[in-house]
UniProtKB/TrEMBL annotation:
Gene that produces this protein: fabZ
PANTHER family, sorted: 3-HYDROXYACYL-[ACYL-CARRIER-PROTEIN] DEHYDRATASE
CDD domains: FabZ
Main location: cytoplasm
Protein name (database record): 3-hydroxyacyl-[acyl-carrier-protein] dehydratase FabZ
Natural source organism: Escherichia coli
EC number: 4.2.1.59
């Protein structure tokens, strides 16, 4: 495996992830090193559709979407670390442990989230994820993804 540290723009992200609007929660990869870490950003606007109901007059970025953004960053790191998958293969979100939502994510701010590679065992790869808003940790979790053929 080669070590490569750089950024990814939306065009490259769309080549790696199957997610699309409104469920694509990675706008840009700020930095990554294959097999080690990835740091990404989701620019959160008050115009996001979920803010109409979560919560009217007090927009809070839903915790489950913060976790999903972290999982998408994990998927990108897995793709960039392992290389090209066989046709019909994807990385699937396989599990989450020790998830902690520590503060609400607000509208109009960037959700800076990242993933750190932990280990691969029996087809599952473990990552430690963290999300920050304005430099403060809002969520941490250990996540797993599995390389598998499309269902």
């Amino acid at each position: 495996m080669t070590t490569n540290t750089h950024t990814l723009q939306i065009e490259e992200i769309l080549e790696l992830l199957p997610h699309r609007f409104p469920f694509l929660l990675v706008d840009r990869v700020l930095d990554f090193e294959e097999g080690r870490f990835l740091r990404a950003v989701k620019n959160v606007s008050v115009n996001e559709p979920f803010f109409q109901g979560h919560f009217p007059g007090k927009p809070i970025f839903p915790g489950v979407l913060i976790l999903e953004a972290m999982a998408q960053a994990t998927g990108i790191l897995a793709f960039k670390s392992v290389g090209k998958l066989e046709p019909g293969e994807l990385y699937y979100f396989a599990g989450i442990d020790e998830a902690r939502l520590q503060a609400p994510g607000r509208a109009w701010r960037s959700n800076d989230h990242g993933s750190h590679f932990r280990k691969t065992r029996r087809g599952l790869t473990r990552f430690k994820g963290v999300a920050l808003v304005d430099g403060k940790v809002v969520c941490e979790a250990t996540m797993m993804c599995a390389r598998s053929r499309e269902a």
